[in-house]
Structures are given as C-alpha cells and as structure tokens.
Specification:
The chain has 293 residues and is of the alpha+beta class. It is built from 4 helices and 15 strands. The chain has a 5-stranded mixed β-barrel. Strands 6-7-8-11-12 form a 5-stranded antiparallel beta sheet, with no helix packed on it. It has a 3-stranded mixed beta sheet with strand order 13-15-14.
C-alpha cells in the first residue's frame, strides 16, 4: 500500500503531456515546479503556510504548505524566494507545497530578497558578489559551518547549533554586530558539550552567566526576557571564587588557632596573622559575572 501511494505522488511530480484524448504520451512538457517570490506569510490558521502568485498561471496569490517536517521550522519572509511544487496541474491552486527560503549565501540569512540575490538557485544565475566562498575569508573563519561540521542549524541573525565529532556547540554572537563576515573574538556566548578521553565536558562562556532555579530566591520568570536581564544583574547573587574563598578560610583558621591576647577580654595582639586578616579584601571573593538565585 505504501509503495502504491508513493508512486501516485511521484507520478504527480513527473512532468507529462497528453495527446488531446486524455491519454498520457509520456512527453515531459508540463511544468509543476516553480521558483517563486513570497507574497505574504500571514496564515490565519498558523500552519506555516505562505502565499505565492505564479506568473502566467495564477490570477491571485494562493496558499502553499511547508514541505519540511514540523520539527524543522522556518517561515519565509515576504519577498524571499521559495521553490513551489504543485501535485496536480489540473488544480494548480490546490495541493501546493514549498521548500525555502532559498538563500544565495549563508551570510545573507537575515535578508536575501527576490529583488536582490535570492534568485541565485543555480550557479548560472548567481549575482557576481555572491560567488565567493565565505568559509575561505580569513575574517570569517569559524563563523559559518565547514566540511568538518556534521550537522548545522543556522539562525537568521547571529545564532547557530553545530553538531561535530563528539561535540555540540550552541552559539550566539558568532560574528560582529551587523558584520556577518567578521568573526566576533571578543564576547560570543556559547555552550559547548563534548566527550574527550572518556570524560564528558560542559563549557559555558559569555560576558554574564546566570544559573537560576525555579525554587530560588529571588524568583525570576521561567523564560527570562531581554528586558529582565537588567534585573538579573541587579538582584541575583554573585558566586564566590573558590581560591580566594579558601585563602580567606585558611587565614581565619590560622588566626583562630594562633592568635593571643595580652589579657582576658582585651583585643588580640596585632601580629602577622592579624594584619593579614585585616588587610584581606573580601570583594575579591565575588565573581561579578556569574550569578545565581
């Protein structure tokens, strides 16, 4: 049953023609795959549909359904390019599916309209300035996936998820703001999970890191918004550095065990341990960039 159903679908995609009597001649002359401009992505049913109007075929825009699985979501923007498949050319306004958006280059995911370079579906139609290999631009090294990246999911604006050999990397700020071909070496934020020598590793790096519990105090929303970041910085607690904290504990221990008093009830003798404890700057214990609740 599955094989028959698949054959029916494939037959609908196969360009055919008839001899005027409704008989299939097998001659490929009917086009049912089109490169189209997105007219609208407003869908009242929120199904991920878009509208396109195919020149010389449509009298108005018609809805197209996404061909990608629902767990892989990208909604094309108006004026971007998609590839549209029509299953039955006898009813061209129905059973339409799309793949896209079509982008001419990975550095143009934020904006690549039909009117500029997004029609670069084949090498013959690529606009000259999009023929460069961006992975070989020195300033853009490691900004975009290369052949050693097994699987990559790239966001429209400065985010990605890379699956490498025994390594997963979630990044944002991978390139400089509004400069998609210049790597950000100063302050990208990323989470890197890896396996090395039979040990698992998790690396988190950013300007500010927040470790929050739903049961912590103070409480924050379960989905922290960009606007709430300022409140996090003000109200979440700084965590202590381990080494300075241990150093302070050792000084206090030595002082408690070794200090002396000239007489009962009087202040301790101001010796070396006293001076060391008194001079210790407790602010050096706090990490100003990692906070908890």
């Amino acid at each position: 049953m599955t094989s028959t159903r698949n054959n029916v679908i494939l037959d609908k995609f196969t360009p055919t023609s008839t001899n005027g009597k409704g008989e299939n001649t097998g001659n490929a002359s009917v086009q049912n795959i089109f490169v189209c401009r997105v007219v609208s992505n407003q869908d009242p049913l929120n199904l991920g549909r878009i509208q396109v109007q195919i020149p010389n075929l449509d009298v108005k825009p018609y809805f197209c359904y996404p061909l990608l699985p629902k767990n892989n979501f990208i909604l094309p923007k108006p004026d971007e390019t998609v590839v549209v498949f029509i299953l039955d050319m006898k009813k061209p306004e129905k059973e339409r599916f799309y793949i896209g958006s079509v982008f001419s280059s990975m550095d143009k995911l934020r904006e690549d309209t039909w009117f500029r370079t997004a029609r670069a579906v084949t090498p013959e139609t690529i606009v000259p300035d999009t023929t460069k290999d961006i992975t070989k631009i020195p300033e853009a090294r490691d900004v975009y996936p290369t052949k050693d990246t097994e699987v990559a999911n790239i966001g429209r604006n400065n985010t990605d998820l890379l699956h490498k050999d025994n390594e997963v990397i979630l990044r944002t700020g991978r390139h400089k703001i509004n400069q998609p071909l210049e790597k950000n070496n100063d302050n990208p934020a990323y989470v890197k999970l890896s396996i090395k020598n039979d040990s698992s590793n998790a690396v988190i790096q950013a300007d500010n890191i927040f470790l929050l519990s739903h049961r912590g105090n103070p409480k924050f929303s379960s989905d922290v918004s960009m606007e709430e970041l300022d409140r996090l910085i003000e109200e979440a607690d700084n965590i202590p550095y381990g080494k300075p904290l241990v150093r302070l504990a050792q000084i206090m221990k030595d002082f408690m065990l070794n200090h002396t008093h000239p007489f009962g009830g009087e202040a301790p003798v101001k010796g070396k341990l006293y001076e060391e404890l008194n001079a210790f700057d407790v602010d050096t214990i706090l990490n100003r960039n990692i906070r908890i609740n």
